[in-house]
Amino acid sequence: MNKIMRAWLDQGKRQVLDRLAEFETEPEDAPIITASRIRYEPGGKVRAIEVGGIGAMLQVARRTGVVEGIDRRLHLLKAHRPYHESDHVLKIAFNALCGGSCLEDIELRRNDEAFLDALSAKTIPDPTTAGDFCRRFTPHDVDALMAAADEARLRVWQEQPDELQGTASYGPEDRGPPERLPCSIPEVLRQESDTTSRSAPFRCARSRRR
Question: Residue 118's closest CA among 43, 57, 66?
Answer without folding.
Answer: 57
